[in-house]
Amino acid sequence: MSGTVRFTCFLNAPVLIVVFLLIVAGCGSFRGERGDEDDFDSEANDDDSASSSDEDDDTTLVGLFAPLKVHVLSADLPLLDAASIYTESELSEFIDGCNTIFKPTGVSWEVVEVTIQPALDEGLVVQAVDTGVPAGGVALAANVDLSALLAPTGWDAIVVAQTSPLGFGGAYKCSLAPGVDAPGAIFVPLRSGNGSPHQIRKWAHELGHMMSLPHTPCEPAYEDNLMMSSGCEFADLHRVGLTTEQIAAVQAQHAIGGPVACGG
Prior knowledge:
The protein folds into 2 domains: 2-59; 65-256, Collagenase (Catalytic Domain) (3-Layer(aba) Sandwich). With 264 residues, it is an alpha/beta fold. Helix content is 43%, strand content 14%. It is built from 7 helices and 5 strands.
């Protein structure tokens, strides 16, 4: 029996040696992992530094996002009542088209909220259509709930069904409350005077005003410029161009973080 036991131990000795070496190797490996864990803070700091660098790079590559809140007016007056004809797909088409036009500026309009808002003073709009007093823009502004605006820490678009009965294809009001330091917003229609979908270019034109761009001179050199008034004889029907100076102005207004103020 004793010989048999010694023989068995002799046969298992190499196995025991291998097991011992594996245990030692395992301990060394475990210490290495713990060492990595002990270095976690420094690795995290390296990662944080890399993240900061990547984020800095992203600000120049991703683009200049402009938060836009869309207020769709609801009313009994057909001229104002965009809520009954509004669709998300049509709104997306308008915004995507505007972003294509604004692409040279690096600014990208990002809709952060769409809200259905009851018109506050429809009678004033009827009066403006019938008599011209008050001015159309003033009448539209009276229908907006100022407390619901995103501005001055963002931009606002007030969507109505039509503006053509008021004599224009869209408008930017630099202050929605005359005599008060109130933020501005654009008024844009879903439909043209003939009932067809409104031109995306005209939405972009009003956004341009909200980003500080005035009308260009009525000269042939600006015939394809986004900001040329439709009343100019030289205006190209599909004008969407922007000058270097206009691009810089849009970027500067974006840095301010909201719509241009009256007199700005």
